[in-house]
Backbone:
C-alpha cells in the first residue's frame, strides 16, 4: 500500500509539471478533449490497484505523459509481474511517441528478461524508429544494439540504413551490405535503392558499390531492379574512385537485365572518362551512344573535344555534330575552334566559326587565339575588332594585344592595353614584351617612355629586360 502511494505521488508530481506546461501552452491544450486526462488517470489508477502486465499495457496505450509512462514500466518490472514481448512492444511504441531517449534501455531490458529480440523484426524496427525520433545522438547506440541483438532481416537492415541517412551519416550503414550477403537477405529493389544511396552519399564506398553490383549480377535479388537511380548512384561511386572499367561494365549489366542505361548516365560516364584523360574508353562509350542513337549532350561532347589528341578523332566528333546540329552551341563551337587551332588546322576552325549564326564573346575569343597561334595576325586583328571590348576575354585580349604589336600596329595595341587596364583585365608579360619590341622596331620612343612611366609594367624581370633592350636599340638608332 505504501509503495502504491509513493508511486502515485511521483505520478502526481509529473502531472503537476504537466499541468504547469499546459498552462504555459494554452493553444495546444485548447485542442485536447476535456475527458482525456480523466481517462488517463482512470487507467493509471486501475494499474495501481491491480498492477499486472495487462494493466500496464492499457495504461501505456492511453497515456501521453513521459514521466508516468516510464514509471508504469519500471513499476511493473519491480513488482516481478510476469511479462513478455507484448509489454516491451507497447513500451517501445510509447517511447517512439513520447520518450525516444529510453528506447535503448527498454530493448536491453527486454533482452535481460529473455525476450527473443533477435527474432522479432517488429520490436526491433520500432526500437530503431524510436531512436531515430531522438535525433543523431542515439545512432551509435542503435548500431551497437543491432550488432549485439538485431535480427539480420530485410526490414531491420532497411530501417537502420534509413536511420543512418536521416542522421546524415550514410557511411555508417555500409557494413550492412555484408551482413545482408552473409545472412542471405533478399535484396529487394527498396533495399538496393537505400544501400546505393548510402554509397553515393559516402566517401570510399566503391568496394561496397561493387558488392551490390555483384549481387545484381548474380541475380540474388527478388526480381531484377527496374530503378535507374540504383545504377546511377553506383556508377557515380565507381567513377569518383577511378574504377572506370568497372563503371563501363555496368552498362552491360544493365543491358543484361533488360534495363538500358539512360541518356543521363551515358553522358555522365562519357564526361568523366574524357575529363580523366581516358580517351579510348570515352570513345568506346561514345561509339555505343551513337550506335543506340543516344544523344551526346554539349557538356560531354565539349569535354571529349577538348581532350582529343588526334585530328582524326576531332573529325569523327565534327561529323557527329553535322548530323546533330542542335548540339552545336557556344561551348561546343569554342571547343572545336580551340582544338583545331592546337592542330594548326585553321580552315576547319573557321568552318566551325562560320556555322554559328551569332557568335558570342567566348567563340570570338577562341577564334582570335587560334589565328594568333597560327601566326595569322591580320585575321586575328580583324576578328578581334568585330565585337565589343566589354565582352572580350583576358586570353583573347592578350592575344590581340600581341597580334597588334607583332603587326607593328602600335595605336591599336595601345587601345587594347588601355581598355584592359580600365576594366582590370590582367595583362600578361608576354603581351607587353611584344608591344615593347614593336616600339623598338617602329622607333616609337614616346610610347616606350609612356610604358616605362607606368609602375605597373615594371615588376616582371622579362619585361624589364625587354625595356632595356628596346631603349638600347633606340639609343643606337639615335631616337
Residues:
Amino acid at each position: 500500500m505504501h509503495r502504491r502511494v509513493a508511486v502515485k505521488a511521483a505520478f502526481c508530481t509529473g502531472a503537476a509539471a504537466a499541468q504547469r506546461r499546459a498552462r504555459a501552452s494554452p493553444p495546444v491544450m485548447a485542442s485536447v478533449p476535456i475527458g482525456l486526462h480523466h481517462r488517463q488517470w482512470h487507467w493509471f489508477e486501475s494499474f495501481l490497484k491491480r498492477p499486472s502486465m495487462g494493466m500496464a499495457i492499457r495504461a501505456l496505450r492511453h497515456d501521453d505523459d513521459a514521466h508516468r509512462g516510464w514509471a508504469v514500466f519500471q513499476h511493473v518490472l519491480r513488482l516481478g509481474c510476469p511479462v513478455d514481448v507484448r509489454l516491451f512492444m507497447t513500451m517501445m511504441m510509447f517511447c517512439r511517441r513520447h520518450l525516444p531517449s529510453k528506447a535503448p534501455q527498454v530493448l536491453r531490458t527486454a533482452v535481460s528478461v529473455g525476450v527473443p529480440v533477435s527474432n522479432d523484426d517488429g520490436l526491433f524496427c520500432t526500437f530503431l524508429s524510436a531512436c531515430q525520433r531522438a535525433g543523431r545522438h542515439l545512432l551509435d547506440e542503435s548500431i551497437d544494439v543491432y550488432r549485439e541483438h538485431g535480427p539480420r532481416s530485410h526490414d531491420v537492415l532497411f530501417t537502420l540504413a534509413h536511420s543512418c541517412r536521416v542522421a546524415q551519416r550514410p557511411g555508417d550503414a555500409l557494413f550492412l551490405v555484408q551482413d545482408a550477403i552473409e545472412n542471405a537477405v533478399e535484396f529487394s529493389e527498396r533495399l538496393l535503392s537505400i544501400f546505393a544511396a548510402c554509397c553515393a552519399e559516402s566517401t570510399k564506398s566503391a568496394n561496397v558499390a561493387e558488392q551490390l553490383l555483384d549481387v545484381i549480377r548474380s541475380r540474388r535479388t527478388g526480381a531484377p531492379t527496374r530503378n535507374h537511380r540504383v545504377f546511377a548512384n553506383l556508377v557515380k561511386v565507381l567513377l569518383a574512385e577511378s574504377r572506370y572499367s568497372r563503371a563501363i561494365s555496368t552498362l552491360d549489366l544493365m543491358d543484361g537485365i533488360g534495363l538500358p542505361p539512360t541518356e543521363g548516365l551515358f553522358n555522365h560516364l562519357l564526361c568523366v572518362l574524357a575529363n580523366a584523360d581516358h580517351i579510348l574508353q570515352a570513345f568506346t562509350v561514345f561509339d555505343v551512344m551513337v550506335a543506340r542513337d543516344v544523344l551526346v549532350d554539349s557538356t560531354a561532347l565539349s569535354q571529349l573535344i577538348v581532350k582529343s589528341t588526334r585530328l582524326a578523332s576531332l573529325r569523327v566528333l565534327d561529323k557527329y555534330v553535322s548530323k546533330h546540329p542542335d548540339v552545336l552551341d557556344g561551348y561546343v563551337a569554342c571547343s572545336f575552334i580551340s582544338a583545331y587551332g592546337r592542330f594548326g588546322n585553321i580552315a576547319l576552325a573557321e568552318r566551325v566559326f562560320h556555322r554559328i549564326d551569332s557568335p558570342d564573346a567566348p567563340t570570338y575569343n577562341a577564334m582570335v587565339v587560334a589565328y594568333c597561334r597560327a601566326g595569322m595576325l591580320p585575321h586575328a586583328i580583324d576578328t578581334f575588332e568585330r565585337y565589343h571590348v566589354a565582352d572580350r576575354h583576358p586570353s583573347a585580349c592578350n592575344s590581340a594585344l600581341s597580334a597588334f604589336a607583332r603587326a607593328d600596329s602600335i595605336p591599336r595595341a595601345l587601345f587594347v592595353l588601355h581598355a584592359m587596364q580600365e576594366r582590370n583585365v590582367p595583362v600578361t608579360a608576354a603581351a607587353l614584351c611584344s608591344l615593347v619590341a614593336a616600339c623598338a622596331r617602329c622607333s616609337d620612343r614616346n610610347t616606350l617612355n609612356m610604358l616605362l612611366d607606368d609602375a605597373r609594367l615594371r615588376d616582371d624581370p622579362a619585361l624589364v629586360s625587354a625595356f632595356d633592350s628596346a631603349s638600347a636599340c633606340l639609343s643606337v638608332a639615335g631616337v
Observations:
- The two ends are 120 Å apart (CA to CA).
- Residues 123 and 279 are 54 Å apart (CA to CA).
- The chain is about 70% helix and 0% strand.
